[in-house]
Write a structure and sequence with these properties.
Helices cover 34% and strands 18% of the residues. It is α/β, with parallel strands linked by helices and 337 residues long. Helix 1 links the parallel strand 1 and strand 2. The radius of gyration is 20 Å and the shape is globular. Bound molecules: uridine-diphosphate-N-acetylglucosamine (UD1). Uridine-diphosphate-N-acetylglucosamine binds next to strand 9, helix 6 and strand 10. InterPro entries: Epimerase_deHydtase (IPR001509), Lipid_A_modif_metabolic_enz (IPR050177), NAD(P)-bd_dom_sf (IPR036291).
């Protein structure tokens, strides 16, 4: 079976390429870093001949800097996916695995002891300024427990990247319905591992901490460090892509959380990396970013039952490796002039 892998030279894409080769797939790569753009019909037409499936990892990632980033997100992530799907239809390619993200959910899921399951609104700036970081029940104001989010949760994209990832899912669903194709969206949680792009405005927190430690600086942990995430190793994410190629729901898009199943706080992650590198110790700064969510942890029931997915790399082993693994250059290459 032959697969077109977009974003093949990127952080996650390069690991997906290795996993696909190892699983016996023929792989054709397409990546801006090697001069091929998903928005270019001719680049797609050359590469889609005799292809059976597309694994779409190419994207502009991260939080961006400000609104000047909006056209870039829309162009690469939304328009680029639309061009890709149209090209797949032209070439009769009926199978798609899409790199989506947990950011489509916005804030995680919570349970109030009195009012049950709650999806809170963005936290108030006043609360954050006073160091009140935990979302509170909108009905009674009391504290809530963070619970695992599943794929049926309503989506609530809160930044340009999240909005464009959700748009990719919707476009893929439209394509699947129109063509009878099979589409799988993998909602990655916080991916880390070798070749993760180093500290840029587009980097995730694990790369920021790792870059700081390499430069001899303390990781700066925002809020009180108690925010929970699921840090999932990039090799497990690559295996999830291989498993997703076997998806079997014609005419539909099916979404899956892809995570380790072993959530940790950002403070614990900083401490684990710092310990592995012999310091400096993390600093809890109390700073906050208005766009950040407090906790988000994944239910893996669906991925485990339907894809047979189960992460193999535990937190301690993964962070030990990541503490000294080589980092990549930049997460968002600019299109060639
Ligand atoms: C991250 C990615 C998002 C990706 C998602 C799932 C970025 C910017 N965010 O979202 O694109 O889709 O994972 O893989 O790439 N923090 C610090 N110190 C710092 C930076 C951040 O303590 O120097 C804290 C933040 O306040 C936040 C947490 O770390 O609470 C996670 O931040 P980050 O990795 O940027 O964003 P996510 O929301 O987890």
């Amino acid at each position: 079976m032959k697969v077109l892998l977009t974003g093949a030279a990127g952080f996650i894409g390069s690991h997906v390429a290795e996993a696909l080769y190892t699983a016996g797939y023929g792989v054709v790569g397409l990546d801006l870093r090697t001069g091929a753009d998903i928005r270019d019909d001719s680049a797609l037409d050359q590469r889609l001949v005799d292809v059976d499936a597309v694994v779409h990892q190419a994207a502009k990632v991260g939080l961006g800097v400000d609104v000047t980033d909006l056209p870039g997100y829309a162009s690469v992530n939304v328009y680029g996916t639309a061009v890709l799907l149209a090209a797949m239809a032209r070439h009769g390619v009926g199978r798609l695995v899409l790199a989506s993200s947990m950011v489509v959910y916005g804030e995680g899921a919570y349970a109030c002891a009195e009012h049950g399951w709650i999806r809170p609104m963005p936290r108030a700036a006043d609360d954050l300024a006073r160091g009140l970081f935990e979302p509170r029940c909108p009905r009674c104001g009391s504290g809530m427990a963070c619970v695992a989010i599943d794929e049926d949760a309503p989506t609530d994209p809160r930044n340009a990247y999240a909005t464009t990832k959700l748009a990719q899912e919707h476009l893929a669903a439209n394509w699947a319905r129109e063509t009878g194709g099979v589409a799988v969206a993998l909602r990655y949680h916080n991916v880390y591992g070798p070749r993760m792009p180093r500290d840029t405005p587009y980097s995730g927190v694990a790369a920021i901490f790792r870059s700081a430690l390499e430069a001899g600086c303390a990781p700066r942990v925002f809020e009180d460090g108690g925010q929970r995430r699921d840090f999932v190793h990039v090799r497990d994410v690559a295996q999830a892509n291989v498993a997703a190629l076997a998806g079997r729901r014609p005419g539909m898009l099916t979404a899956y959380n892809i995570a380790s199943g072993e959530p940790h706080t950002v403070g614990e992650m900083a401490a684990a990396l710092a310990a592995q590198r012999g310091g400096p110790e993390p600093v809890i700064t109390g700073e906050y970013r208005l766009g950040d969510v407090r906790h988000i942890v994944a239910s893996l029931d669906k991925a485990s039952h339907e894809l047979g997915f189960r992460a193999q790399v535990g937190f301690a082993d993964g962070m030990r490796e990541f503490a000294t693994a080589p980092l990549g250059r930049s997460s968002s290459p600019q299109p060639p002039a």
